[in-house]
Amino acid sequence: MFAAYAARIDRDQPLSGLELGERPEPEARPGWTTVNVKAASLNHHDLWSLRGVGLGEESLPMILGCDAAGIDEDGNEVVLHSVIGQSGHGVGPKEPRSILTERYQGTFAEKVTVPSWNVLPKPKELSFEEAACLPTAWLTAYRMLFTNAGVRPGDSVLVQGAGGGVATAAIVLGAAAGLRVLATSRDEAKRARAVELGAEGAYEPGERLPRRVDAVIETVGAATWSHSVKSLKPGGTLVISGATSGPNPKAAELNRIFFLELKVVGSTMGGKDELEDLLSFCAARGVRPVIDSVLPLGRAREGFEKMAGGDLFGKVVLTV
Fold it and tell me: Nearest to residue 144, comparing CAs of 245, 264, 229?
């Protein structure tokens, strides 16, 4: 079957390890099911995999891709939950949690096999391309907002780095849920797009906001950390799920964190129950993932290049 896969690890030039070509079809195993992939979306996790983060040389070649929507063995339209080993279904009871492409072949292929427990019905209201955007970036944003930030309708939220998959999802989901969303971006066009998607205002990184917020959604890391901490109300919550600009900010702002009794919460992906809620929320409220571009699987390299260069707003989707 045709697939996009990591053939080599290169920390400095990750795309040099990306190959497109034939790979063996997945083998059947007890408690697992094979899905014919219709659409799959890119995540920064795929780029980090090519750098060897979470993926070792001993696991190569590895088909990339965490997210997918497709048709299962019974002809049902489905969405995949990409966290394997979370439940014990289909894996050993002591197997650690992992994401597709870390221990098991991923979704950038004609077929993928996952534990049957990881397969959820696709709402008829969502296309395959839209549904394929949800299991990683949009699920991460959903958990950050509604599980870990503890916000409720009417509260204010700052989303750093509009344009990225998680940040874009947080803007759309937050606005749909009645939150007052502010956003930042270095790019004027992305700031304008953030407002179109429901943000009350969009600002340059580090710019003084009109008011302090109840929570901050942080995925940028070092470059925006100080601004995130300074933007919170006393008792506010900073939720972080990534650090694309690096993990070591110049100022940790510890004095401000303890004096204002701020909360810093780490957040990674989300559970199957949260993905079910997210799918239901999107179907019921008419919320649709923001898609930057849709490319056939054979042009996957173009999608990786867009993501690596930051030249996108929303998700890149690959179709099979």
Answer: 264
Q: Are 80 and 68 in contact, with CB atoms under 8 Å apart?
A: yes
d(CA 180, CA 178): 7
Question: In the structure, what pLDDT confidence band is assigned to residue 179 with cuts at 50, 70 and 90?
Answer: very high
Mode of pairing for the β-strands spanning 77-80 and 83-84 = unpaired
Quickly state the pLDDT bin for 94 (edges 50, 70, 90). confident
86 has a pLDDT exceeding 80: no
Residue 236 carries which DSSP code? Answer: E
Stretch 204-222: mean pLDDT, rounded? Answer: 96
Q: What is the pLDDT of residues 221-237, one digit of tens each?
A: 999 999 999 999 999 99
The three-class DSSP label of residue 16 is: helix
Rounded Cα gap, residues 48 and 7, in angstroms: 14
**Other beta carbons within 10 Å of 214:** 20
Q: Who's near 103: CB < 8 A, 6+ residues apart?
A: 59, 84, 85
Length of the chain: 320
Cα Dmax for the chain: 57
61 cis-preceded (ω within 30 degrees of 0): yes
Helix H or strand E encompassing 202: strand 201-203
Please report, to the nearest 10 degrees, the dihedral formed by the alpha carbons of residues 29, 30, 32, 37 taken in order.
40
Looking at the DSSP assignment, which residues form a beta bridge with residue 22?
Answer: 2
pLDDT tens figures, 39-64: 999 998 999 999 999 999 999 999 99
Distance of alpha carbon 40 from alpha carbon 266, whole angstroms? 26
Residue 315 and residue 289 in contact, taking contact as beta carbons nearer than 8 Å: yes
Q: What interhelical angle do 165-176 and 272-285 show, nearest 10?
A: 60
Q: Looking at the DSSP assignment, which residues form a beta bridge with residue 78?
A: 70, 121
